[in-house]
């Protein structure tokens, strides 16, 4: 880990520890924005972490900057850090200025982007856009363009994910000034926008899994039955080892995707991550609830802040099955003798020395 | 709970990737025409001629110093040779244990004379070792070991029985884990490692056939077998620590997730390029697991290279790797209907049957699933 990343990781972790308690995660799950958490995140410049240094970034490699998203996931993602980081990266790739506050991104369906006077007429819609109601800038991609829409440019219909986080429907039919529209950057084609979302959720899930493991280990150490902590029972230990296994695999898969993100194999990396982390999420959440018993099934206990997030995130931007299919199709392009070379070919999945 | 469950990315090595091409070309020629059913036996395939060829190429003992017959290559290069030979189903059983474990153990704990005497032969693919750990009443509970090497004038006199010793019938030497003082009640204390020349008198090697009809493991009975004092590896009484130091190497390599590779490759061949959504998703899921496992395994290799403690990380690789290897036959038989009387799937059926009958061992050998999970639980601070 390099120095800048190490400092940022420590700073961000401390920030979330101090500001992003359960109250913040619960507010987010009511569709609200915990303002003080966002203000703190924005103050240290995390929303610009994926941008080049000259555009306000930290000069971090993209692979390193993406790892910051995992930290927020470990606190239940009370603010749209990943959404804003990636939306800003998309804007930067098109030469548009970054959002001054919260941003999110979406593929614009039924997109029409045509010249109108000295500006543009933009119409279309998008559904289930994360955090849109709180975003100052909504980065829309469609019709061969990237559009930095402002809140007032579109109609927002509130919706929610399975765990209550804001997932809103959008409709736009507006005339926008020329400086809000640019040609779509080649790097962010339709697949890449979905992949950006999948990568973000894979990283958040890896962070949340780490917290689920910590909570479950802690609970097993405190819960006394038969005169001793249940953590002393082999049946419980064996189950917690499985959670650790899944946590470790999720971490490795998410990092593999982060490392591959700025290269030719970015889609492949994301497919591995979303498929593998999503599977880990299901296994680990199930065991965590089993070990927590009835208390973990209550609204009062914090476990669900993470397990319900895992259950939602694994379905967003393509479920395991969706990404497994893509991965399988790619691998089967050369079945038999081509299979092992396919597994070993993407050496760009590795960090350059 | 502060267990760090992240794995470093193995640095990209241009030299290793160049070597991969070279190794593939060599294996393609060596293994031309070898049927999948034979390739499936890779890890249990004993072929001294093949091992000598690999040795002549400089692909055994690759990371060892040149003065002991090694080639001072990087761990990344060794990893390439290991995974390529396993993925192609090359017969590696002869040299495997010496390359992975016994050689590195000698490098770490052996005397200068021992290193000079044994390592060059191992690197040449001519000196083979086996590992004497389990006993009739000692499996997972290794500290209960009863085989005894009694210090006597000029050496040790060994009595006892080792069981499930893979390749004892083919190896010239056994790395024996035994008791040199005290009693089994002393647990870890009083255990040692001895390199036993298996041609010495008083050693009887009896075959045990496994349920697949294969002969790879043995019962080895020591009856007053005398070994000279210089057969002791490391310090007397330090056996437990020495054995534990081998485990990170033993539990994280590609052999821990590539055991069912021959079946997986043939499965994709039969599926073809467009088998439909369900089969594509099933293959994609296995690819996601395999790529993740490979990244973790290579990460452990990088940790070992940097002298980091990788015990917990390696244990997780083995636990997950065995699950992966074991589910491949189940998935294969869901995706491909094998009819014994259909010529198209007859050979595949044999390969499937062989793999089905092999997988129970994957979560037994080298530490059972339950022992591994106990180690992981300890890493989590639960025990």
TrEMBL record, chain A:
Which enzyme class, named as a word? oxidoreductase
Question: What's in the keyword line of the UniProt record?
Answer: FAD, Flavoprotein, Oxidoreductase
Work out whether the entry's keyword set contains Flavoprotein. Answer: yes
Q: What positions does the domain Acyl-CoA dehydrogenase/oxidase C-terminal occupy?
A: 198-309
Q: Where is the Acyl-CoA dehydrogenase/oxidase N-terminal domain?
A: 6-91
Required cofactor(s): FAD
Domain of life where this protein originates: Bacteria
Q: Name one GO molecular function term.
A: oxidoreductase activity
**InterPro entries (alphabetical):** AcylCo_DH-like_C (IPR036250), AcylCo_DH/oxidase_C (IPR009075), AcylCoA_DH/ox_N (IPR013786), AcylCoA_DH/ox_N_sf (IPR037069), AcylCoA_DH/oxidase_NM_dom_sf (IPR009100)
Write down the EC number. Answer: 1.-.-.-
Matches recorded under PANTHER family: ACYL-COA DEHYDROGENASE (PTHR43884), ACYL-COA DEHYDROGENASE FADE28 (PTHR43884:SF20)
Q: Member of which family?
A: Belongs to the acyl-CoA dehydrogenase family.
Supply the name of the protein: Acyl-CoA dehydrogenase family protein
Task: Tell me what organism the protein belongs to.
Answer: Sphingomonas immobilis
Q: Highest lineage ranks of the organism?
A: Bacteria, Pseudomonadati, Pseudomonadota, Alphaproteobacteria, Sphingomonadales
TrEMBL record, chain B:
Spell out the Pfam families in the cross-references.
Acyl-CoA_dh_M (PF02770), Acyl-CoA_dh_N (PF02771)
Q: Where does the Acyl-CoA oxidase/dehydrogenase middle domain lie?
A: 130-224
Q: Does the keyword Disulfide bond apply?
A: no
Q: Which keywords belong to this entry? A: Oxidoreductase
Check the record and name the InterPro entries matching this protein: Acyl-CoA_Oxase/DH_mid-dom, Acyl-CoA_Oxase/DH_mid-dom_sf, AcylCoA_DH/ox_N, AcylCoA_DH/ox_N_sf, AcylCoA_DH/oxidase_NM_dom_sf, Mycobact_Acyl-CoA_DH
SUPFAM superfamilies, per database record = Acyl-CoA dehydrogenase NM domain-like (SSF56645)
**Any keyword Oxidoreductase?**
yes
Q: Which residues form the Acyl-CoA dehydrogenase/oxidase N-terminal domain?
A: 13-126
Q: Which PANTHER family does the UniProt record give?
A: ACYL-COA DEHYDROGENASE, ACYL-COA DEHYDROGENASE FADE34
**Protein's recorded name:** Acyl-CoA dehydrogenase family protein
